[in-house]
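Take a minute with the sequence and C-alpha coordinates given here and flag any C-alpha coordinate that looks odd. Thanks in advance.
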Amino acid sequence: MEQLDTKGRYPESGMILRVRQITYQAEKINSYELTDPEGGELPPFTAGAHIDFHFRDGSVRQYSLCNDPAERHRYLISILRETQGRGGSQALHERLHVQRLVSIGRPRNNFPLVANARRTLLLAGGIGITPLMSMVHELQRSGRDFLLHYCTRSPAHTAFGDRLGPLVAEGRAVVHHDGGIPANGLDIARLLERCEEGTHLYYCGPAGFMAACRRASEHWPEDAVHWEYFTRDAAPKSALSGAELAQAGDHALGLGFQVKVASTGAVHTVPDDKTIVEVLAEHGVEVETSCESGLCATCKVRYIEGEVDHRDLVMSRDEQSEYLTVCISRAKSPMLVLDL
Protein backbone atom coordinates (compact mmCIF):
# COMPACT_ATOMS: atom_id res chain seq x y z
CA MET A 1 0.00 0.00 0.00
CA GLU A 2 1.36 3.42 -0.92
CA GLN A 3 1.86 5.82 1.95
CA LEU A 4 0.76 9.45 2.19
CA ASP A 5 2.83 11.84 0.11
CA THR A 6 4.40 14.95 1.59
CA LYS A 7 1.43 17.13 0.67
CA GLY A 8 -1.01 14.95 2.57
CA ARG A 9 -2.79 13.75 -0.58
CA TYR A 10 -3.84 10.17 -1.07
CA PRO A 11 -2.91 7.91 -4.01
CA GLU A 12 -5.67 6.27 -6.01
CA SER A 13 -4.68 2.87 -4.63
CA GLY A 14 -5.69 3.72 -1.08
CA MET A 15 -4.71 5.35 2.18
CA ILE A 16 -3.52 4.76 5.71
CA LEU A 17 -5.87 6.18 8.36
CA ARG A 18 -5.91 6.22 12.14
CA VAL A 19 -8.72 4.89 14.34
CA ARG A 20 -9.53 7.99 16.35
CA GLN A 21 -12.58 6.76 18.26
CA ILE A 22 -14.66 3.63 18.77
CA THR A 23 -18.27 4.04 19.93
CA TYR A 24 -20.80 1.47 21.10
CA GLN A 25 -23.88 2.02 18.96
CA ALA A 26 -26.11 -0.95 19.78
CA GLU A 27 -26.01 -4.64 20.64
CA LYS A 28 -23.04 -6.09 18.70
CA ILE A 29 -22.61 -2.83 16.73
CA ASN A 30 -19.63 -0.50 17.09
CA SER A 31 -18.84 2.59 15.05
CA TYR A 32 -15.26 3.42 14.09
CA GLU A 33 -14.09 6.95 13.35
CA LEU A 34 -11.17 7.04 10.91
CA THR A 35 -9.04 10.16 10.42
CA ASP A 36 -5.90 11.37 8.66
CA PRO A 37 -2.88 10.72 10.94
CA GLU A 38 -1.67 14.25 10.13
CA GLY A 39 -5.06 15.87 10.69
CA GLY A 40 -5.66 16.68 7.03
CA GLU A 41 -8.79 16.44 4.91
CA LEU A 42 -9.91 13.11 3.47
CA PRO A 43 -11.04 12.48 -0.12
CA PRO A 44 -14.70 13.45 -0.55
CA PHE A 45 -17.51 10.91 -0.73
CA THR A 46 -21.19 10.92 -1.64
CA ALA A 47 -24.16 9.56 0.30
CA GLY A 48 -24.41 5.77 0.00
CA ALA A 49 -20.67 5.29 -0.56
CA HIS A 50 -18.47 2.60 1.02
CA ILE A 51 -14.78 2.03 1.63
CA ASP A 52 -12.69 -1.11 1.19
CA PHE A 53 -11.02 -2.33 4.37
CA HIS A 54 -7.79 -4.20 3.63
CA PHE A 55 -6.81 -7.00 6.03
CA ARG A 56 -3.27 -8.26 6.52
CA ASP A 57 -4.11 -11.65 4.99
CA GLY A 58 -4.97 -9.92 1.72
CA SER A 59 -8.74 -10.11 2.10
CA VAL A 60 -10.94 -7.08 1.54
CA ARG A 61 -14.28 -6.18 3.12
CA GLN A 62 -16.61 -3.32 2.24
CA TYR A 63 -18.15 -1.07 4.90
CA SER A 64 -20.60 1.76 4.26
CA LEU A 65 -19.80 5.30 5.32
CA CYS A 66 -22.50 6.55 7.65
CA ASN A 67 -21.45 10.11 8.48
CA ASP A 68 -22.38 13.34 6.69
CA PRO A 69 -20.74 13.54 3.23
CA ALA A 70 -20.08 17.22 3.96
CA GLU A 71 -17.53 16.16 6.58
CA ARG A 72 -13.98 16.03 5.24
CA HIS A 73 -12.14 15.38 8.51
CA ARG A 74 -13.33 11.81 9.12
CA TYR A 75 -14.93 8.64 7.82
CA LEU A 76 -17.38 6.84 10.08
CA ILE A 77 -18.22 3.16 9.61
CA SER A 78 -20.41 0.95 11.81
CA ILE A 79 -19.88 -2.79 11.98
CA LEU A 80 -22.12 -5.57 13.24
CA ARG A 81 -20.23 -8.42 14.86
CA GLU A 82 -21.40 -11.50 12.96
CA THR A 83 -20.46 -14.90 14.33
CA GLN A 84 -21.62 -16.70 11.17
CA GLY A 85 -19.82 -14.41 8.72
CA ARG A 86 -16.43 -14.65 7.01
CA GLY A 87 -14.57 -13.46 10.11
CA GLY A 88 -13.91 -9.85 9.14
CA SER A 89 -16.37 -8.27 11.54
CA GLN A 90 -15.20 -10.42 14.45
CA ALA A 91 -11.57 -9.55 13.77
CA LEU A 92 -12.34 -5.83 13.76
CA HIS A 93 -14.39 -6.00 16.96
CA GLU A 94 -11.68 -7.95 18.74
CA ARG A 95 -8.48 -6.36 17.42
CA LEU A 96 -9.20 -2.85 16.24
CA HIS A 97 -8.36 -0.28 18.89
CA VAL A 98 -7.98 3.48 19.16
CA GLN A 99 -4.79 4.90 17.55
CA ARG A 100 -4.28 1.88 15.32
CA LEU A 101 -3.40 2.55 11.67
CA VAL A 102 -5.53 0.80 9.06
CA SER A 103 -5.36 0.37 5.30
CA ILE A 104 -8.41 1.76 3.51
CA GLY A 105 -9.47 2.12 -0.12
CA ARG A 106 -10.81 5.39 -1.48
CA PRO A 107 -14.62 5.80 -1.27
CA ARG A 108 -16.73 4.18 -4.00
CA ASN A 109 -20.47 4.49 -4.54
CA ASN A 110 -22.76 1.85 -6.05
CA PHE A 111 -25.77 3.13 -4.09
CA PRO A 112 -26.07 6.87 -4.90
CA LEU A 113 -28.99 9.16 -4.21
CA VAL A 114 -31.00 10.42 -7.19
CA ALA A 115 -30.64 14.18 -7.12
CA ASN A 116 -34.00 15.09 -8.66
CA ALA A 117 -36.26 12.75 -6.63
CA ARG A 118 -39.42 14.47 -5.48
CA ARG A 119 -39.47 12.32 -2.35
CA THR A 120 -37.10 9.69 -0.95
CA LEU A 121 -38.26 6.65 1.00
CA LEU A 122 -35.56 4.84 3.00
CA LEU A 123 -36.04 1.34 4.43
CA ALA A 124 -33.38 -0.12 6.72
CA GLY A 125 -33.19 -3.51 8.40
CA GLY A 126 -30.65 -3.96 11.19
CA ILE A 127 -27.11 -3.02 10.14
CA GLY A 128 -28.58 -1.97 6.78
CA ILE A 129 -29.06 1.43 8.41
CA THR A 130 -25.41 2.33 7.76
CA PRO A 131 -25.51 3.50 4.11
CA LEU A 132 -28.88 5.13 4.71
CA MET A 133 -27.49 7.28 7.54
CA SER A 134 -25.25 9.19 5.15
CA MET A 135 -28.32 9.67 2.96
CA VAL A 136 -30.28 11.03 5.92
CA HIS A 137 -27.52 13.58 6.55
CA GLU A 138 -27.47 14.63 2.91
CA LEU A 139 -31.24 14.81 2.50
CA GLN A 140 -31.75 16.75 5.69
CA ARG A 141 -28.96 19.21 4.97
CA SER A 142 -30.29 19.87 1.45
CA GLY A 143 -33.86 20.30 2.69
CA ARG A 144 -35.29 17.47 0.59
CA ASP A 145 -38.39 15.46 1.44
CA PHE A 146 -37.66 12.02 2.92
CA LEU A 147 -38.94 9.40 5.32
CA LEU A 148 -36.90 6.66 6.98
CA HIS A 149 -38.30 3.37 8.30
CA TYR A 150 -35.78 1.52 10.48
CA CYS A 151 -36.55 -2.08 11.48
CA THR A 152 -34.71 -3.64 14.42
CA ARG A 153 -35.20 -6.39 16.97
CA SER A 154 -35.44 -4.11 20.02
CA PRO A 155 -34.31 -0.72 21.35
CA ALA A 156 -31.06 -2.38 22.44
CA HIS A 157 -30.40 -3.39 18.83
CA THR A 158 -31.10 0.09 17.44
CA ALA A 159 -28.05 2.10 16.35
CA PHE A 160 -27.77 5.88 16.05
CA GLY A 161 -30.48 6.51 18.61
CA ASP A 162 -29.17 9.99 19.44
CA ARG A 163 -29.19 10.99 15.77
CA LEU A 164 -32.57 9.45 14.96
CA GLY A 165 -34.44 10.69 18.02
CA PRO A 166 -35.05 14.22 16.69
CA LEU A 167 -36.06 12.82 13.29
CA VAL A 168 -38.62 10.56 14.95
CA ALA A 169 -40.01 13.56 16.81
CA GLU A 170 -40.24 15.47 13.50
CA GLY A 171 -42.05 12.59 11.77
CA ARG A 172 -39.17 12.02 9.35
CA ALA A 173 -38.18 8.65 10.81
CA VAL A 174 -40.11 5.70 12.22
CA VAL A 175 -38.40 2.93 14.20
CA HIS A 176 -40.02 -0.51 14.29
CA HIS A 177 -39.17 -3.26 16.82
CA ASP A 178 -40.34 -6.78 15.99
CA GLY A 179 -38.85 -8.80 18.88
CA GLY A 180 -37.18 -11.09 16.39
CA ILE A 181 -40.44 -11.91 14.58
CA PRO A 182 -40.61 -9.94 11.29
CA ALA A 183 -44.39 -10.33 11.08
CA ASN A 184 -44.67 -8.20 14.23
CA GLY A 185 -42.74 -5.32 12.67
CA LEU A 186 -43.20 -3.06 9.67
CA ASP A 187 -45.73 -4.23 7.10
CA ILE A 188 -43.49 -3.69 4.08
CA ALA A 189 -46.03 -4.93 1.54
CA ARG A 190 -48.63 -2.47 2.74
CA LEU A 191 -46.13 0.40 2.91
CA LEU A 192 -45.01 -0.14 -0.69
CA GLU A 193 -48.41 -1.03 -2.09
CA ARG A 194 -48.79 2.44 -3.55
CA CYS A 195 -46.04 4.09 -5.55
CA GLU A 196 -46.28 7.86 -5.79
CA GLU A 197 -44.83 9.49 -8.88
CA GLY A 198 -41.42 11.00 -8.22
CA THR A 199 -40.73 8.86 -5.15
CA HIS A 200 -37.48 6.88 -5.05
CA LEU A 201 -37.08 3.86 -2.78
CA TYR A 202 -33.82 2.78 -1.16
CA TYR A 203 -33.49 -0.35 0.97
CA CYS A 204 -30.74 -2.31 2.67
CA GLY A 205 -30.68 -5.04 5.31
CA PRO A 206 -30.48 -8.80 5.98
CA ALA A 207 -31.68 -11.52 3.62
CA GLY A 208 -35.32 -11.77 4.72
CA PHE A 209 -35.73 -8.02 4.80
CA MET A 210 -34.26 -7.63 1.32
CA ALA A 211 -36.51 -10.33 -0.08
CA ALA A 212 -39.58 -8.68 1.44
CA CYS A 213 -38.66 -5.29 0.00
CA ARG A 214 -37.94 -6.77 -3.41
CA ARG A 215 -41.31 -8.58 -3.55
CA ALA A 216 -43.23 -5.55 -2.30
CA SER A 217 -41.66 -3.18 -4.85
CA GLU A 218 -41.92 -5.35 -7.98
CA HIS A 219 -44.68 -3.13 -9.38
CA TRP A 220 -42.62 0.05 -8.87
CA PRO A 221 -40.80 1.60 -11.87
CA GLU A 222 -37.41 -0.08 -12.17
CA ASP A 223 -35.50 3.21 -12.13
CA ALA A 224 -37.22 4.28 -8.89
CA VAL A 225 -36.00 1.33 -6.79
CA HIS A 226 -32.47 1.15 -5.41
CA TRP A 227 -30.87 -1.39 -3.08
CA GLU A 228 -27.57 -2.60 -1.73
CA TYR A 229 -26.70 -6.13 -0.62
CA PHE A 230 -24.11 -6.53 2.12
CA THR A 231 -23.53 -10.22 1.38
CA ARG A 232 -24.42 -12.62 -1.40
CA ASP A 233 -26.42 -14.62 1.16
CA ALA A 234 -28.96 -11.79 1.16
CA ALA A 235 -29.44 -11.88 -2.62
CA PRO A 236 -32.17 -13.72 -4.54
CA LYS A 237 -30.95 -17.20 -5.45
CA SER A 238 -31.43 -16.59 -9.16
CA ALA A 239 -28.80 -13.88 -8.97
CA LEU A 240 -26.31 -16.17 -7.25
CA SER A 241 -26.44 -19.52 -8.90
CA GLY A 242 -28.01 -18.84 -12.27
CA ALA A 243 -31.43 -20.40 -11.83
CA GLU A 244 -31.93 -19.79 -15.54
CA LEU A 245 -28.96 -21.97 -16.46
CA ALA A 246 -31.23 -24.63 -17.87
CA GLN A 247 -32.12 -22.24 -20.70
CA ALA A 248 -28.70 -20.63 -20.92
CA GLY A 249 -26.90 -23.19 -23.07
CA ASP A 250 -23.97 -25.52 -22.51
CA HIS A 251 -21.53 -22.69 -21.83
CA ALA A 252 -23.43 -21.74 -18.67
CA LEU A 253 -23.81 -25.34 -17.56
CA GLY A 254 -20.21 -25.80 -16.52
CA LEU A 255 -18.58 -26.63 -19.86
CA GLY A 256 -16.37 -23.56 -19.98
CA PHE A 257 -16.24 -20.69 -22.47
CA GLN A 258 -13.72 -18.35 -24.08
CA VAL A 259 -12.90 -14.68 -23.72
CA LYS A 260 -11.22 -12.58 -26.37
CA VAL A 261 -9.17 -9.47 -25.55
CA ALA A 262 -10.19 -7.01 -28.26
CA SER A 263 -6.96 -4.96 -28.24
CA THR A 264 -4.69 -7.95 -28.90
CA GLY A 265 -6.99 -10.56 -30.38
CA ALA A 266 -5.78 -13.08 -27.77
CA VAL A 267 -8.33 -15.79 -26.93
CA HIS A 268 -8.32 -17.53 -23.54
CA THR A 269 -10.43 -20.40 -22.21
CA VAL A 270 -12.23 -19.92 -18.90
CA PRO A 271 -12.69 -23.38 -17.29
CA ASP A 272 -15.36 -24.31 -14.78
CA ASP A 273 -13.16 -23.77 -11.73
CA LYS A 274 -11.79 -20.32 -12.60
CA THR A 275 -13.20 -16.83 -13.02
CA ILE A 276 -12.64 -14.54 -15.98
CA VAL A 277 -10.44 -12.24 -13.91
CA GLU A 278 -8.26 -15.17 -12.81
CA VAL A 279 -7.74 -16.32 -16.39
CA LEU A 280 -6.96 -12.79 -17.55
CA ALA A 281 -4.40 -12.39 -14.77
CA GLU A 282 -2.72 -15.65 -15.77
CA HIS A 283 -2.14 -14.13 -19.19
CA GLY A 284 -0.86 -10.78 -17.97
CA VAL A 285 -4.12 -8.81 -18.24
CA GLU A 286 -4.70 -7.16 -14.87
CA VAL A 287 -8.14 -5.91 -13.84
CA GLU A 288 -8.62 -4.21 -10.48
CA THR A 289 -10.83 -6.18 -8.07
CA SER A 290 -12.16 -5.66 -4.57
CA CYS A 291 -15.02 -7.81 -3.22
CA GLU A 292 -14.63 -10.60 -5.82
CA SER A 293 -18.28 -11.52 -5.30
CA GLY A 294 -20.20 -9.12 -7.55
CA LEU A 295 -21.05 -6.63 -4.83
CA CYS A 296 -18.96 -3.60 -5.74
CA ALA A 297 -18.46 -3.38 -9.55
CA THR A 298 -14.80 -2.48 -9.14
CA CYS A 299 -13.93 -5.02 -11.83
CA LYS A 300 -16.60 -4.12 -14.36
CA VAL A 301 -15.40 -4.34 -17.97
CA ARG A 302 -17.17 -3.35 -21.17
CA TYR A 303 -17.96 -6.26 -23.50
CA ILE A 304 -18.32 -5.93 -27.26
CA GLU A 305 -19.78 -9.29 -28.29
CA GLY A 306 -21.37 -12.30 -26.64
CA GLU A 307 -24.15 -13.08 -24.21
CA VAL A 308 -23.34 -12.68 -20.52
CA ASP A 309 -24.65 -14.63 -17.55
CA HIS A 310 -24.65 -11.67 -15.17
CA ARG A 311 -24.23 -12.59 -11.50
CA ASP A 312 -23.39 -9.22 -9.98
CA LEU A 313 -25.74 -7.52 -7.53
CA VAL A 314 -25.00 -3.87 -8.21
CA MET A 315 -25.38 -2.96 -11.86
CA SER A 316 -28.66 -1.91 -13.46
CA ARG A 317 -30.02 -3.64 -16.55
CA ASP A 318 -28.81 -0.74 -18.66
CA GLU A 319 -25.28 -1.13 -17.29
CA GLN A 320 -25.39 -4.89 -17.80
CA SER A 321 -26.17 -4.32 -21.47
CA GLU A 322 -22.65 -2.86 -21.81
CA TYR A 323 -20.60 -4.19 -18.88
CA LEU A 324 -19.95 -7.37 -16.95
CA THR A 325 -18.15 -8.02 -13.66
CA VAL A 326 -15.20 -10.25 -14.51
CA CYS A 327 -14.90 -11.50 -10.91
CA ILE A 328 -18.11 -13.51 -11.05
CA SER A 329 -20.00 -13.28 -14.35
CA ARG A 330 -20.01 -16.21 -16.77
CA ALA A 331 -21.02 -16.62 -20.44
CA LYS A 332 -24.16 -17.95 -22.09
CA SER A 333 -22.44 -17.81 -25.48
CA PRO A 334 -19.29 -19.69 -26.60
CA MET A 335 -17.23 -16.49 -26.45
CA LEU A 336 -17.21 -13.03 -24.89
CA VAL A 337 -15.21 -10.25 -26.53
CA LEU A 338 -13.92 -7.83 -23.90
CA ASP A 339 -13.06 -4.20 -24.50
CA LEU A 340 -9.57 -4.55 -23.00
Observations:
- The CA atoms of residues 81 and 93 lie 7 Å apart.
- The radius of gyration is 21 Å.
